[in-house]
Amino acid sequence: MSQFSIAVLAGDGIGPEVMQEANKVLDAVEKKFNVAFNRTAYPVGGYAIDTEGEALPSKTLLGCEQADAILFGSIGGPKWDTLPLEQRPERAALLTLRSHFDLFSNLRPARIYPGLEALSPLREDIAKSGVDVLVVRELTSGIYFGQPKGREGEGEEEFAFDTMRYSKREIRRIAVAAFEAAQKRRGKVTSVDKANVLLTSRLWREVTEEVAKDYPDVELDHIYIDNATMQIMKNPAQFDVMLCSNLFGDIVSDECAMMTGSMGLLASASMNEDGFGLYEPAGGSAPDIAGLGIANPIAQVLSAAMMLRFSMNLTDAADAIEKAVIATLEAGVLTGELLPDDKRENASTTSQVGDEIV
Amino acid sequence: MSQFSIAVLAGDGIGPEVMQEANKVLDAVEKKFNVAFNRTAYPVGGYAIDTEGEALPSKTLLGCEQADAILFGSIGGPKWDTLPLEQRPERAALLTLRSHFDLFSNLRPARIYPGLEALSPLREDIAKSGVDVLVVRELTSGIYFGQPKGREGEGEEEFAFDTMRYSKREIRRIAVAAFEAAQKRRGKVTSVDKANVLLTSRLWREVTEEVAKDYPDVELDHIYIDNATMQIMKNPAQFDVMLCSNLFGDIVSDECAMMTGSMGLLASASMNEDGFGLYEPAGGSAPDIAGLGIANPIAQVLSAAMMLRFSMNLTDAADAIEKAVIATLEAGVLTGELLPDDKRENASTTSQVGDEIV
Ligand SMILES: CC(C)[C@H](C(=O)O)[C@@H](O)C(=O)O
Ligand SMILES: CC(C)[C@H](C(=O)O)[C@@H](O)C(=O)O
């Protein structure tokens, strides 16, 4: 029997209750696929600040180091928003985990599920045009981590600065990730940059072109970030894989997520070169609905499926989970936010959706 | 009689034909408001590359220096896209003009006109919610112009870098522009940043808060750029003035423009501290429809109206042009792209729309 160890970091807000459903699904996978997931829960985020004094306690980091993968819930909330920036859950935990484990490859799929088009903020004909995008975002370099960063000078001439920086190696490895993903999808990579202004974008374009030569079956296009945000609105079905730097990927993946109108369905994977990864829902901690048992657990369940696929190579199990999710949606077992206002009384609870997937 | 001199830079693609209509409208204003616009045309963009060897010939720059304002058409096209980046129309002409004249304050209004909601790529209820946003973008600093920028190293460790940089003075003057604009509108400024990651954004937030104290009648909110691109899709009516740095404003203003679904109606102003400015349509040079007489001249005409308002203080004349544009839209005198596919045979030509406005 194969064994895997998972560091479970449920975090804040709806994190714990949706994580419970992901755990139910993992229990079912253990039985069906003769595999064992040894799971250990660790505190993270605001909860860890309250109980341990910091958003990413060293025992949590150590637990993650010893695991095969991190299953992450969500963190943050108004309670911790007044802390100094460096101590806040998002930065202190999420950015630190990303850079500590060199999780450079961030995959964020966004699709509009048939039958759920009315949730999209886009016009009906656009929402129905077959939207299925995978944003591949570089996650450990660029302007997020580039040095120098600082503040200098006096009075009105005081200035702050950040450095956007990319090496060929950093660009190449994320471009390879995008082309590999496109080969398994519809064979198209759209690389997002601002090469008419930024030198980093020009290098980005050069290296991406080089990588493309190794994937003659994949088509490569380039688009400026300003145009990308327009095209995502106007004609999102034109995109298959969107390859982005850290900052542009932050923007593009959120716009794509919103375009689906169903953030509660969107999972994400952040991986390093060894296949180790952190898997988390794309939506936030939603403190306003935390504890009510109405949050959608699907994004968390699909994050677990990505974990099985990418960090454990359990393709069949991952496929089975994804199929079960689609069947659950098709059966109309839906949490309230997926239903029209006048049908909200038919909403299923968080745990009913989890049970149906199981 | 008041006299103003205008440098007219029609440029490429549809530039010349829409400029002709703007000139007609300015002729009408001269008669009605007893004012003289001394206009001199100068080559710019691809046309200038072809005829003078460079996108911004020195006689054009000199002509702009001697004028009270620049009325700009549009530049660029596939013909010049293979030139080295520094020589291409957009960079060589547009970015140089912006920095030469210190045109730091870029105003880009985007609204969904009543009756034209069906053009918006947004869902009908969102498009009809009363969308009227003014993007105020800093245009002469940030990562577009920040030093150092460069490329260093060897082999796979070769890297490129750009610097995002803002001084308090630079932030303050654009924040003041946003608050002044909000006072004349609905009294709300939403400042867009990435203060959870960037030090420039943190300084941006600090200075914006300081400026807000001088405008107690204006409400100030902050939003992260990733969330901004989501909210523009989900609920654009929540925004009045969006205050952005150069890069974020590039992204936000284009997304807002696309959200209206009618790029041919959108004007923009780029001004310095002396009231000198460059006024141009938000859309591009649209080489595919150039010369056919079907391009929408309204963005160019509204750019002329902004010029009268901001660089010449001719408020009545600017109001009159804007009213005439609304009346033209209401009368259904529309170019083809504003009409549903099955009504395209009712389309008016570029010059018919110009005549109607006159
Ligand atoms: C919380 C924040 C630092 C983070 C980011 O910008 O990467 C978030 O927006 C994300 O996309 O995961
Ligand atoms: C052409 C390009 C350099 C320019 C910019 O990024 O500023 C354009 O996108 C704009 O918004 O005016």
Can you walk through the features of this model?
- The structure is a homodimer of 358-residue chains.
- With 358 residues, chain A is an alpha/beta fold.
- Chain A is 41% helix and 21% strand.
- Chain A contains twelve helices and twelve strands.
- Chain A has helices spanning 15-33, 45-52, 58-66, 89-100, 124-127, 168-183, 199-212, 225-234, 246-260, 298-311, 315-330, 350-357, and strands at 2-11, 35-41, 69-74, 105-111, 132-138, 150-152, 159-167, 188-193, 219-224, 241-244, 267-271, 277-281.
- In chain A, strands 2-1-3-12-11-4-5-10-8-9 form a ten-stranded mixed β-sheet, sandwiched between helices.
- In chain A, a hairpin with a 5-residue loop joins strand 11 and strand 12 (277-281).
- In chain A, helix 6 crosses helix 7, helix 8 (225-234) packs parallel to helix 9 and helix 10 (298-311) runs antiparallel to helix 11 (315-330).
- The longest helix of chain A is centred in the first third of the chain and has 19 residues, at 15-33.
- The radius of gyration of chain A is 20 Å and the shape is globular.
- In chain A, 57% of the residues are buried.
- The mean pLDDT of chain A is 96.
- Chains A and B meet through helix 4, helix 5, strand 7, helix 6 and helix 7 of A and helix 4, helix 5, strand 7, helix 6 and helix 7 of B.
- The structure holds 3-isopropylmalic acid (2 copies).
- One 3-isopropylmalic acid sits between chains B (90, 94-95, 250) and A (196-197, 226).
